[in-house]
Specification:
The structure holds 3 protein chains of 3 kinds. Chain A has 9 helices and 17 strands. Chain A is α+β, with helices and mostly antiparallel strands. Chain A has a 9-stranded mixed sheet with strand order 1-2-6-7-10-13-14-15-17. The longest helix of chain A has about 30 residues. Helices cover about 20% and strands about 35% of the residues of chain B. In chain B, the strands form 2 sheets. Chain B has a 4-stranded antiparallel sheet with strand order 2-1-7-6. In chain B, a hairpin with a 2-residue loop joins strand 4 and strand 5. The chains are: A alpha+beta, B alpha+beta, C mainly alpha. Chains A and B meet through strand 1, strand 2, strand 7, strand 8 and strand 9 of A and strand 7 and strand 8 of B.
Chain lengths: ~350, ~130, ~180
């Protein structure tokens, strides 16, 4: 009798052990599998972040703060006292800026040089002239464009470690790479925290941190839908397309990607270019450059930056760079892969 | 140690019980209705979460944003019906009724998004545009 | 037949742990069985723990389970350790209850199935928690249950037929110590 009782006690002990182990493990992993989703508006665009890991809350909060700071301290040409605002105000003079801003502008200039000026941050005044996406667009007159075009040229921008100087009549606009820069800043923040993985979209420029994720490429004919998916692993991905912001005048469509050579929206047979590489800034700049350069001329540039890309043409065909063939999947029947 | 048979008739009961349990667990899987939740945020603050799949009837929510935005929920879908902003982009988004759909009013900092069980395994996690 | 001395216990636990580990290692070489959900293994090492639960005692069986989990942890990481431990403890506890119950009416097959089911439930709990997707329970659970039915049938039957060999081994160790 006594022995039987002892046995029962022992069995109960083992079961309790199991329960405690499962409980402890559960607690630990519930914390680390903790996922925080947040959608908010910053930098004039929608930011949606989905972060999982122990520090998901803290990381989410710091990212929101950093993004708002990034806009007011560096990038915006509207925000007074931002680095870009001061560079434009003091055109022709050396302006001391943060190390980061100088590095970003330096990187942008590298890509300008490698794309023969297809991507150019000195189109600032033209961008302001066209003001596409504001809702108050007017077709600018030819002469004004011609005059402003004379001051466009990345070669006139001088960058050192902590200062930037532009030509007296120039203005820079980091709008084309701002979202990508934000992705890079976010990546650096995520690295500081105990975060397992994260999927973050800064107005369509996406950062995949940690685990592989599937990214849909917007359908240019209906941008709330996707026409293909790409598997992305710990990289950034972003798209430039003629459907994002545009206006119509005199029966013609004018999109927001300006060709620094003509001063007009780029004329191309492309609808959109999606670029995948390690840096968000590179993705943004390269997708813009490729959109302007066209398919053929883009390939060399992409190779140089070890980037992969998806080209969507206006005849509903799609081209994918070789490194992406296995990870790319067309999902819309309206398109064919070349 | 007591002699134990290879197979007793109670084993048959165990087998049946396990199979029955598996089938019972499978059934709701097959008929699982897709759940859809709409989240309304103003300036990053979640104002309301609405379970769209169970929402019946008609309801309007007036958001205290600047400019003001009015949202309507009706039979498992949601839309922005009125916005006192210039571009009316959010109103033009129309009805949101599937996972990932979103209407945004930038000036009012209002985001209405719909999340649900993925429509299929193929659906991407995020969209680049 | 019963173990009497510490040495006998030590030797038996050692050799049975080694056998359980060898079986789990063998199993890890088997690729995903077609038609079975990934992660569903035959659970051959359950044969050893079930034998131990019946022929040895509670703590001996517990040690074997622990050794198995540590082996999984060393070779495949923390997650494997936790899943192995959770599954192992649950199925061991149930095996102990069933095999040491005098009024047991179940056969080897029934016991094997129940142990396999418990093993899978334990593992699934941990997997759910680790991946943070409780939906796994309903989506993956039914398949794991069915798989456990099949693998339990297998391990129960094998146990019945290797019983004499295991008993002989036990006798040999007890005699020589």
């Amino acid at each position: 009798m006594k022995k039987a009782k002892k046995k029962v006690v022992s069995i109960v002990a083992v079961v309790l052990c199991a329960a405690v182990v499962i409980g402890l493990v559960s607690y630990d992993y519930i914390k680390s599998s903790n996922e925080v989703n947040k959608t908010y508006i910053a930098m004039g665009t929608v930011i949606s972040s989905s972060i999982s890991g122990k520090d998901a809350e803290k990381a989410t909060a710091e990212i929101e703060e950093a993004i708002n700071g990034l806009e007011t301290a560096c990038l915006s040409w509207r925000a007074e006292e931002s680095d870009v605002w001061r560079i434009n105000l003091n055109a022709g003079k050396d302006v001391s800026v943060s190390r980061e801003t100088a590095a970003w502008i330096g990187r942008a200039l590298d890509i300008s040089a490698d794309s023969d000026g297809a991507f150019d941050i000195t189109v600032g005044k033209l961008t302001q002239l066209w003001n596409i996406g504001s809702g108050k667009e007017k077709l600018p007159d030819k002469e004004t464009i011609k005059v402003l075009l004379e001051d466009v040229g990345y070669k006139k921008v001088m960058v050192s470690n902590t200062s930037v100087k532009i030509d007296s009549f120039q203005a820079i606009d980091l709008g084309a790479i701002g979202k990508g820069i934000a992705c890079d800043v976010i990546r650096d923040i995520l690295k500081e925290y105990d975060v397992k993985d994260a999927v973050i979209s800064v107005g369509g420029s996406v950062l995949i941190f940690g685990n592989k994720a599937s990214v849909g490429i917007a359908n240019p004919d209906n941008s709330s839908q996707y026409m293909a998916t790409v598997e992305v692993d710990n990289q950034s991905i972003s798209t430039s397309g003629d459907y994002e912001r545009f206006f119509e005048a005199e029966g013609k469509k004018y999109h927001h990607i300006l060709d620094p050579e003509s001063g007009y929206p780029a004329v191309t047979d492309l609808r959109s270019v999606t670029v995948i590489c390690d840096s968000g800034l590179d993705c943004d700049a390269l997708s813009t450059a490729c959109f302007i350069l066209g398919y053929r001329e883009s390939l060399e540039l992409l190779e140089k930056y070890e980037a992969q890309a998806v080209f969507v043409f206006d005849n509903h065909t799609v081209s994918v760079t070789d490194g992406l063939k296995n990870d790319f999947k067309l999902t819309s029947n309206d398109y064919t892969v070349e | 140690m007591k002699k134990i048979k290879l197979f007793s008739r109670y084993d048959l009961l165990v087998l049946i019980a396990i199979s029955a349990l598996a089938i019972i667990l499978l059934v709701p899987n097959l008929f699982a209705s897709k759940s859809l939740t709409a989240t309304i945020t103003v300036d990053g603050e979640v104002i309301e979460r609405v379970d769209l799949s169970s929402a019946t009837g008609f309801r309007e929510i007036k958001l205290e944003s600047d400019p003001a935005v009015k949202v309507r929920i009706e039979n498992g879908r949601i839309c922005v019906v009125e916005a006192e902003c210039e571009d009316k982009l959010c109103v033009n988004c129309g009805w949101l009724e599937s996972d990932g759909a979103m209407a945004v009013c930038l000036p009012a900092k209002v985001v209405v998004s719909v999340d649900g069980s993925k429509a299929s395994d193929e659906a991407p996690d995020v969209i680049t545009y | 037949m019963k173990t009497k001395t510490f040495t006998q216990n030590l030797a038996l636990v050692g050799i049975l742990s080694a056998q359980a580990i060898a079986l789990s290692y063998l199993e890890s070489l088997i690729p995903v069985i077609p038609g079975f959900p990934p992660g569903a293994k035959p659970g051959l090492s359950n044969i050893v723990t079930m034998f131990s639960a019946g022929a040895l005692g509670i703590w001996q069986t517990f040690y074997i389970t622990l050794a198995k989990a540590i082996f999984a942890g060393v070779t495949r990481g923390l997650t494997a350790f936790l899943t192995s431990l959770a599954g192992g403890l649950l199925s061991t506890a149930v095996a102990l209850i069933l095999l040491r119950n005098k009024n047991n009416k179940l056969g080897y097959v029934g016991i094997g199935i129940i142990c396999a089911v418990c093993h899978n439930i334990g593992q699934l709990c941990v997997a759910c928690v680790i991946s943070g997707t409780p939906e796994l329970f309903t989506s993956y659970g039914p398949f794991l249950l069915l798989a456990a039915g099949a693998t339990g049938f297998l391990t129960g039957t094998i146990l019945k037929y290797v019983m004499p060999a295991l008993e002989k081994q036990m006798k040999f160790i007890i005699k020589s110590n």
